[in-house]
Every structure is written in structure tokens, then in C-alpha cells.
Amino acid sequence: MDHAITPTGQHDHAHCVSSALAAAEARCTGTAKLTQSRRRVLEIVWESHRPVGAYDILDRMAKDGNPAKPPTVYRALNFLLEQGLVHRLESMNAFIGCGSTSVDGHAAQFLICRDCNMALELDDPTLRKALDQAARNSGFRVDRRVVELSGVCADCQKAA
Amino acid sequence: MDHAITPTGQHDHAHCVSSALAAAEARCTGTAKLTQSRRRVLEIVWESHRPVGAYDILDRMAKDGNPAKPPTVYRALNFLLEQGLVHRLESMNAFIGCGSTSVDGHAAQFLICRDCNMALELDDPTLRKALDQAARNSGFRVDRRVVELSGVCADCQKAA
DNA sequence: ATGACTCATGTTATAACATAACACAAGGCC
DNA sequence: GGCCTTGTGTTATGTTATAACATGAGTCAT
Question: Which neighbouring-strand residues pair with A64?
């Protein structure tokens, strides 16, 4: 992403979506192709910076006139997860577009506002190192990191 | 807990359970009582240091001769979560006994071994501060922390 | 160009996880 | 006793996710 994303989403979202899609196209050039249904799911995920549930995506597709069944959506989501194009937020059973182009994108941390439901992706290498070091101190080798902090974002604090 | 817990559980587990139960009794002296069914669920959770699913608990209770329905178990689990006696591991939809007596016990971090399924609870204040600081840098106020690192524990690395 | 292979999709059914809503019981307490 | 709070029982249902099997669309070596 070459632009700032604020928690409230006061940004050029069309640009946001188009650059996400472009990045996805660029990444899926090999055997792993960004097919129609995968692209559609990715677009839906990127409609907001709020996490979206698999069944929300299904509803959205039904409204579109392209009704789908759960396996279709879960397959697309799993593909997008593998490609590092979306994240799964474990604490919400929901998905969000990956806003990082870094190699470590899937080591990201999330700040989830319980008021406005916005999820802000951090990609803080210091934090990642601190987490890995803590694990290493216990002899653990870390494969996967789930770091989800819930609370109230700056804007919602002001509003309250 | 006044004793070491190793990832492989090479410890005096009877002591482990009894001190967890004693701590629970001590905590639930006011209006929030540790009733029969709550105690039973807590005991089942403490049978191992592995996260246990709500429906595993139901199965366990059925085998005991005390069959229960899902709401019974979820109510007990919610009570135990409120009292800080168990944790929920979001990335596994499972529950584990809280091995911390500290005030910040619910800010814990977990190391989950994908081979032996053991979950080791860290309660690292440095890590907690680093996470809160990162959130604060984005203007977030943090209410709830989900930090779950999956990988391979020291013993399973040796075994492999 | 066809057979074999791989990858993606469609479809049905069901598994796994969690809660709503209502009825009832037990104990405190004025 | 009447009232209130807290906990439990029960039925039903909501929500999230996957298994299993059939079909189709493209590639590619022979």
C-alpha cells in the first residue's frame, strides 16, 4: 500500500481496492491463478477495512446475482490466505485484506476497534522480534502468529 | 501456581490440579460461587495442559455419567472466563486452565505446539508492555489481548 | 487429437462451535 | 410468605466450516 490508511477509513478507497487487486494480479502469475471467483471474494473483502465473515461474503454474492455455496467461498479464502492476500482474524472468525506488501506480512498484528469494528493492521518488526524472542526463550520455534488486540480506536475515543 | 510447568507436562499434575482448584475456591467466595457444575468443568479443563474444546468437555461429562447439554458447559466456561480461571484460545476454539495468579493473568500469551498440542502460558510483562505501546502509538486503547503463537515446542523439536 | 493429468468448481450433506429463549428451582432476606 | 437474585434444565436454532464425490476446463506429451 502506498498510501495511509486511517482507522476511520478517511482515504481514497477506490485506489485502495485497485492497488490491492493489482498486487494480487501481480502475485498470482504462476500456477496459482487469480480466477474469477477468487477475485470476486477478494474484492468483497476489500470493500471495507472491516473484517468480513465468510457468510457475509456469501450473502454479498447472493445479492450480486452470483449465489455461491460455503465451500466456494472457503476455498477462495483459503487460496487468498495461502497467497498472503488476506488475513484471518481468529478472534472474530472473519477475514480482512492484507495491507502489507512485506515478506513478513503474515506476521502482522491487528488492532480491532469494538465500537466501529475497524481493524488496523500493524506490521511492527520490533513487536514481531519481541514475540519470537519470548518464544525462543521457552525453546519454541514459531510458525504462526496470532496477535489481535481489541479495544477502542483513536477516533471512537474522541467521539465518546 | 507454585511449581514449574514444562511443555511436556513432566510435573506433579495432581498437585497442579489441586492447587488450581484451591485457587478457584479461594477466588469464588463472594456472590460468584464455584458450583458443582462449574467445578466439574474446571476439573476437566485441568486434566491436561492441552486446550480442550467445549464439546470435548460435553463428551467427558457424558462418559462420567453426568451428561450435559451445550448451554450448561458454555455457561460454566463463561463463568470461569469471567473469574479469570480459564483462558480461551481463539485460534483453536478451545479452553485451558489459567496458570497465572497475577492480576494481569488475562493478558497472557500462549505458545501452542502443533505436534503435541501442548499450550504453554507465558505472562511476560515486557511483551505486554510492548504490545500496549504499539497500540498506543496508533492511538488505540487496548481492552483485550489475543496473543497465540503456534509452532513446535522444545521437546517436539528434539523428538523430530 | 486423444488420453492422462492437474487444477478449479459445483453440489449435497454434515460436522463443529455457540447461543436464544423460556421454564423452573434453590436460597437469601425484608 | 412474597420477592428477588442466581443458577440450572431443556428445546431449538443459529453460526462457522469441512468432507466427499462429481464435473469441467486447461495443459501437454505422445
Answer: none
Which grid cell is B146?
489475543
Does residue B48 lie within any of the structural domains?
A: yes
**Average pLDDT in the A115-130 region?**
95
Work out the average pLDDT over B33-48. 96
- What's the domain range around B123? 13-159
CA of B80 and C1' of C27: distance in angstroms? 22
The answer to whether A63 faces chain B, any CB pair under 8 Å, is no
* One-letter amino acid for residue B47 of the chain: E
Single out the residue of B62, B99, B90, B94 nearest to residue B77, CA to CA: B94
Please name which of B102, B107, B37 lies closest in space to residue B68, comparing C-alpha atoms.
B37
Task: Find the helix packing angle between A36-45 and A13-27, rounded to 10°.
Answer: 150
CATH of the domain at A155: 1.10.10.10
Residue A66, CB, less than 7 Å from strand C? no
**Whole-number Å distance, CA A109 to C1' C21?**
38
Nearest to A149 among B91, B145, B148 (CB): B145
Predicted confidence at residue A2, as pLDDT, reads 45
Contact A27, A66 (CB under 8 A): no
